[in-house]
Amino acid sequence: MSKERIGLMDANGGSAETGRGMNETGMAGGFAESVEQKMDAVRDWFASHCCGFVKEIPSMLFLIFLCLFLALLLSLVPLLFLLFGPVAPESQPIVDMKSPFSCPLDDSSHNLICLNGAQLCDGISHCPDKFDETFYCKSECKEGEHKCGGQDLCLPQEALCNGIDDCRDGSDEKDCEVCIQGAKMCNGRKCVAASRLCDGKSDCEDASDEKVGKSFEL
């Protein structure tokens, strides 16, 4: 192959590469020009509607300021939600308890400490005024109270047949005719506590405590 032909091929190859480079440069320049034109339009809109001084700001500098401003607004969203979002309700005294045993958290508090039967008369003061170690701890019960077997513990009527064993011998849940505090009857005279209904675990022999809308109406 002659040197003239090789030189011609090199020249053609170089021309093609140069052309591709010019095309790529032209495309990049066209894109930048398009972005700049759009930013000019946005800047002019701001200048005509609210802020006339932005007319003097270069388009690309205005774009940077606009991006920073939008980022600042997004960072303020959580703060605005905390300031103007829904307010959590104030704490209220506990009135609908699963246990009839309760005592004030302290002398000036409306909040209550809820106890179960196992925490009564156990030698440990759970209430600030030792209410749990005095009020229910009796060897002889009054009329209407239930005496737990083997304990000096007298339970009020509202602690009976609620599905919760407050006596160590479980006598407060035996021979129930009616269940209270949302508990449901199953297997004759056994009460299942409201908190144990439809919990995925069968407490009744026939699993009726897990059959919503059939045996029980919740």
Automatic annotation (TrEMBL):
GO terms for biological process: vesicle-mediated transport. It comes from the Eukaryota. Residues 1-23 are annotated as: Disordered. Its main location: membrane. It is found in: Endomembrane system; Membrane. It is a single-pass membrane protein. GO terms for cellular component: endomembrane system; plasma membrane. Disulfide bonds join C161-C176, C179-C191, C186-C204. InterPro entries: LDL_receptor-like_sf, LDLR, LDLR_class-A_CS, LDrepeatLR_classA_rpt. Keywords: Disulfide bond, Membrane, Repeat, Transmembrane, Transmembrane helix. PANTHER family: LDL RECEPTOR REPEAT-CONTAINING PROTEIN EGG-1-RELATED, LOW-DENSITY LIPOPROTEIN RECEPTOR-RELATED. This is Uncharacterized protein. It comes from Diploscapter pachys.
